[in-house]
Amino acid sequence: MKGNAVYKRSYNGCLAICGSLPLGAEMPSENELSQSLAVSRTTIRTVMTGLEAAGILRRESGARRLSRRPAPDDAFPDTQTLSTSATVERRFLEWILDGHIGPGHLLTATELARQFGTSTTIIREHLPHFQHFGLIERRPNSAWLFKGVTPAFANEIYEVREMFELRAARSFIDLPDDSGSWRRMRTIEAEHRSLLASIDTDYGLFPDLDERLHRTVHETADNRFIKDFYDIISMLFHYNAQWDAEDEKQRTFTALTEHLAYIEALLRRDLKAIDRACRQHLKTARSNLLRSIELRMKVPSAPDASPA
């Protein structure tokens, strides 16, 4: 089995699709899966072989059918599906959200390379990404000032998120009827309904589904700034979901129902309904992030130690 992040990310994506199908159902074609997951058909073929070896799929009259429903331990851990840059960025975000440093702390590439067990070259290459979002500020002598993840930061970043998301949604509904993005959105809708039906046990699968929905919308804007912005939003959401576990199932139920209202509006190309559903969902997401930040602010700062 391949060990690269693209394969593992694609494998997890196919597992999510398998989870939305009834037993015995035929998997989408290699071409449809390739378009849905934005990877090559060669990667999809390798993933299909892996799923067959795991007993999840079986060959039947030239088709691949679902033999068993995927279990949580069938998936690769998130940390194994990330590129080097995404791994460094996610670990940095988790580190600062854990309270290892506070606003006003000066960071250097040498300090961070030691913290994360990587090279100063990697740090210098990827740290400026966070400057674009106001988390850090460049200072003389190769230092960076950490400005903090505060309620004000959350409010500001969600104002921009709302603007970008609505702009991307308008691009989405302008796509031609035969665009692969429509097929991906219908698959994502089916996955939402499946997860809603099994929410008592599977609510932990929601973060991946959330990311794929919003990324499917954002990528149609064909705007690098919107795409880069969503990377930081995705990391913030994932960490928020891990840190604030209280009422997670109820929050997942709310998010799923809000997503379905948004998806249905997108599929109808109903601009007014899209605007209403999108704003409501982002308002809820902002409230959840603010609650998480406020809870962390009440917890004493963690010792300044290397992350695991």
Automatic annotation (TrEMBL):
Electron transport as UniProt keyword: no
Give one GO term, molecular function aspect: DNA-binding transcription factor activity
Q: Where is the HTH gntR-type domain?
A: 19-67, 88-146
Family matches, as InterPro entries: GntR_C, TF_FadR/GntR_C, Tscrpt_reg_HTH_GntR, WH-like_DNA-bd_sf, WH_DNA-bd_sf
Domain named GntR C-terminal: which ranges?
A: 156-284
Sorted alphabetically, the keyword list is: DNA-binding, Transcription, Transcription regulation
Q: What is the protein name stated in its UniProt record?
A: GntR family transcriptional regulator
A Pfam family this chain is assigned to:
FCD
In its UniProt entry, the species of origin is given as: Ferranicluibacter rubi
Q: Which PANTHER family match?
A: HTH-TYPE TRANSCRIPTIONAL REGULATOR LGOR-RELATED, TRANSCRIPTIONAL REGULATOR, GNTR FAMILY
- Report if keyword DNA-binding is assigned: yes
